[in-house]
Structures are given as C-alpha cells and as structure tokens.
Amino acid sequence: MSTQNPVFIPGPTNIPERLRHAMNVPTMDHRAPNFVKVLEPLLADLKKIFKTKSGTVITFPSSGTGGWEAALTNTLSPGDKVLVSRFGMFSQRWIEMCERLGLEVDVIECAWGDGAPAAEYGKRLAADTYHKIKAVLVTHNETATGVTSDIAAVRKEMDAAEHPALLYVDAVSSLGSMDFRMDEWGVDLAVSGSQKGFMLATGMAILGVSPKAFIAAETAECPRCFFDIRDMAGANAKGNFPYTPPLPLLMGLRESVNMLLEEGLDQVFARHHRLAEGVRRAVDAWGLRLCANKPEWYSDSVSAIYVPDGFDSNELVNHAFEAYGVSFGVGLGKVAGKAFRIGHLGMLTDTLVLSGLATIEMAMKDLGYPITLGSGVAAAQEYYRHDKHIALKKAS
User: Fold this and answer.
1) How far, in Å, are 130, 228, 231 from residue 218 at the CA level?
2) 340 and 219, same structural domain?
3) 311 plus 178 within the same structural domain
4) Number of helices followed by number of strands (H, E) in the chain
5) What domain count does the chain have?
C-alpha cells in the first residue's frame, strides 16, 4: 500500500493517472501515416513550452544526461573552450562530461547555495578578445541546492561583451515548472527531460535548438551518431524518427503537453511558486534554513534544507521511507549528509505538499530534531489558505 504515497523527490516526479493511461497504448507502426499526426503537432506544441518560435524541438530516447551530451557533441569540437560555473552537483557533472569529451573547460567556482554569477561570466567573456570561448553553459535550476539562476542576466552580459559564444542551458528541472524563455533569453541549446515538469517516466531528452546551433552542427567535429540533431530534425520533418522511437513515452508526452497548456503556463508557474513558498514557510517554522543563500535564488521546483548540526540528513530520509513509506531527496555532493530535499514540482497540489510536510515532520520528531510537531504544517496551511482566498476573490 505504501506505493500509493506520493514521492517528494525532485525527479522522477509523480505520474498523474491521466498520463499513465495515455502511455498504456498497443503497439503502433511508427512508419505508418498516422504517426505523423502524433509527432508533428506534438513538436509544434513543445515549442510553446520552450517559448520559442525560431527554435526546433528535438527529442531523443534518453535521460537529461543524454540531452547534455547531444548539445555538446553536435555543436563543439575537441579542444574547444567552454565557460561554465560550478555551484552544485549537476553543474559539476556537466563539467565532467565536457572534460571527458575533450573540451577545454574554464570553470567559475561558486559557493554551493549561490546562483550562476552573471557578472563573472561577463568579465571573462569581455577578456576573451579572440573569442576562444565557444560555449557558455549555465544550469538554470540546480536541484542539489535548490537554486535557480537568472539566465536573462547571463545573456545580458554576453551581449554587453559582444561575444558570439553559444548559450547552453540545463533546464531539466525547470522546464514545465518555471518560466523559461528560449527566444527572449537568446538560448541556443536548452536541455530538458521527460521525468520532471513533464511528469513522465525517465526516458526522453527534450532539447530546444536554435538556428545558430544548427549552423554550428555543420562544422562541429565531436563524434555523434545516435544523438545527431541533423538526422533527427531531418526525420522529424518527414513525420518520423531515424530509428525506433519510444512510442508510449511520446504518447505520454502528448498528453503531458495537453495538461500544461490546458492549465495555462502562467497558472502552472504560479502553482509551483505557491507550493514552493508553502514549503519555505514550513522550513522557517522549523527553525531550519535553505541551502539557497538568497531569496532571488530560491527554486520553485525543489527546496534543499540543511539539518541541524549533529544530525545526518541521510538517516532522516531513510527513516521517512522506512517508517512512513514516503521518499524525499538526499543531499548530494558537498551537502551530502547535511541537507535533505523536498521536490515540489509536477502534479503536486497544496494538499499533497501538506502530506509531505507532515511526514517529514514526524520523521524529524522521531529522530529527536528540535522542532515542534505541526509547526511547519501549520505555517504552510496559513499561507495556502491566505493565498487561495486571494485567488478566489480575484476570480469572483
């Protein structure tokens, strides 16, 4: 019965029944004419989620990590220089991938809990007068620390430096949950996945690719075959794939995009902000603190929370699962054992988030944490009630 409980990890997220049913499809022929009727409108509607008119959406059977690799290998050559900031586990993993692909990596070191330092990006780009830097990499939402970075600010610095580098953004845990503006922010390669804001199982990398990135793909020399965006774009234009596609996931993605557009993207983002703010009110009531160092960096899809000195966050997460059958995120990298994470993205509602807060409160109390049982839940309840009443008044 415990499998009926929602998960509060930052991905994979809870799968709505509507999407589970959408993926429960019989085998269909992906070379048949009716597949075109599925694929073409899906790719067109995905552009609405990326907020791009000029870009092309490319999907690969993969996780977000495969999307990272596709972005790099399609547009860069071994020895090319890239500029990236390190402020969490996932920015670190992107750096490691760049190094393994033979790229020269210029790393901006940041405190874990800070966001991407736009001004430092600008400083280094301005100093790169020979334009050796070919790509700028930014993690939009760092799930290890619950930090969201200002991509528009990074683009502003790139433009001020008049630098021609491509802009790559890891939007795996932000797209479909928080506002993302590919065209407005001048993003050349945006990487996401099926298992976060799209509320599906892991298995699809979803990329937004700019015209500038397609031009770079013509001369890039990193090896790629399965992840070749030119092959995929060419096949997609004819209504098919260059190889067998993950049909159940595509059918689920079709329904996921329907759900997001039906709710309305602004409403989706507002819901995620409301859920996140309720969690943040609970954290304050517990007397704990977030990993994110400033409010402007608070993530609306995941909160990373430091445990008090002398406590082990891994023990807390394990106890919550063993005693109550509910999963929370463990701390990663530099905050392993020091912080736990509450994922509040995807299909969640106020009521479901309250159940997660109540559960982690019980687990903390069981382990002797210096909290008052019910304090965090009450703080979130007050916020959700007040916010809901305001929304009802506006609607009337």
Assistant:
1) 22, 11, 12
2) no
3) no
4) 13, 13
5) 2
